[in-house]
Amino acid sequence: MGAKSVFATLLLEVGNTAWKVAAYRPHQQPEFLQRGYGFEALKAYLQQQVFADLALASVAASELTDNLRQFAQQQNKKLVIAETQAGFGIAHCYANPSTYGVDRWLTLLAARAAQTNAIIIDAGTAVTLDVMDDQGRHLGGWISPGFKLMQEALLQRSSKLRVATQAPSETLGTSTENAVYLGCQAALRGFVEQALQQSQPKLADTRTVVYLTGGDLDLIPEETFERFVYQVQRRPHLVLEGLSRWFEQRPE
């Protein structure tokens, strides 16, 4: 077996279905290392690394966080857990910021570094929209079922429905499987188009950056943005970027 990789701090993003690991280095973008599914796979991966600290952002069930806390104690490692809070250059529109998902908050932190208007679309298990102006004021957002959840909702209604295993080459489904896939994809694209249209009047006429992240961001084609004068950045690890900034700036 080869030598283990050595990192001072590992960043963990744990979502509803998948987890990601990145290496933290001060004042640098995090180095993405691994993605996987399930706690046992995550534990096995971490056991192959040499590190001092773990920084965690999780929207998964509390049981997984408890398992990670226990693992860190057994390995004599420090585990710090990011939670949504006031400050860090963000002015929340939520009356109670603690009810705002930590993953969404961390994407705001990542986008805040550019000091521009930001439209953040995270196409994951859920698809979310967050809008922030160039002063760091969070203006609100949307939450909707993601691409796979939409398909699953249809499947639960009928045992006869099936989902296409790959993207159809046609634009109109000539089978039920393709029709389900294409319909859910159209709904995702419609969410994005409406998000851009509704966000535009809320932002001053200054530079606006659209950040795309999440596991299904490849389902959003470039032509979706053609009629909008925005810079579009595909940042698949935006939550980890925000977690890195939080870890760097957090009070000790």
UniProtKB/TrEMBL annotation:
This is Type III pantothenate kinase. GO terms for molecular function: ATP binding; metal ion binding; pantothenate kinase activity. GO terms for cellular component: cytoplasm. It catalyses: (R)-pantothenate + ATP = (R)-4'-phosphopantothenate + ADP + H(+). Its main location: cytoplasm. A monovalent cation. Ammonium or potassium. It is found in: Cytoplasm. Its cofactor is K(+); NH4(+). Keywords: ATP-binding, Coenzyme A biosynthesis, Cytoplasm, Kinase, Metal-binding, Nucleotide-binding, Potassium, Transferase. Pfam families: Pan_kinase. Pathway: Cofactor biosynthesis; coenzyme A biosynthesis; CoA from (R)-pantothenate: step 1/5. K(+) binds at residue 122. One of its GO terms (biological process) is coenzyme A biosynthetic process. It comes from Aliidiomarina haloalkalitolerans. Belongs to the type III pantothenate kinase family.
